[in-house]
Amino acid sequence: MKIKPLSDYILIEPLKEEEKTKTGIIIPQTADKEEPQQGKVIAVGPGKLLKSGKRMPMEIKVGDKVLFRKYGPDEIKVDKKEYLIAKQEDILAILE
Q1: Which residues fall within 8 angstroms of residue 40, CB to CB, at 6 or more apart?
Q2: Residue 9 and residue 3 in contact, taking contact as beta carbons nearer than 8 Å
Q3: How many domains is the chain built from?
Q4: pTM here?
Q5: Is residue 71 part of a domain?
Q6: Residue 31 burial by CB count (10 A; 0-12/13-18/19+): exposed, middle or buried?
Q7: 64 is in which domain, residue-wise?
Q8: Burial of 35 (0-12, 13-18, 19+ CB in 10 A)
């Protein structure tokens, strides 16, 4: 199923990396820890519709690696895969 965000929404695939301690012990993803705040942009909406009828261009593009607000995005599940959907204002930075 293809997801096409509306307005200034962005579809994000959270980046979950295995974590290792300094001694080399791998911490499994099932361990109790905070959700990641980084992700890869999968799809973007056309931009916010302004009162003038024009669209505000999106600053984020597909493929960007982004840093987002901890409690900003909503979690969704499509075809057994987890995604996040957030407004452009919830994106704090593009990671280069």
Answers
A1: 12, 13, 15, 63, 64, 65, 66
A2: no
A3: 1
A4: 0.78
A5: yes
A6: exposed
A7: 9-16+34-95
A8: exposed
- Look up the CATH number of the domain holding residue 60: 2.30.33.40
The residue with greater pLDDT, 15 or 30, is 15
88, two tokens: 């452009």
Instruction: List, for residues 19-46, the tens digit of each pLDDT value.
Output: 656 676 666 655 555 656 899 999 999 9
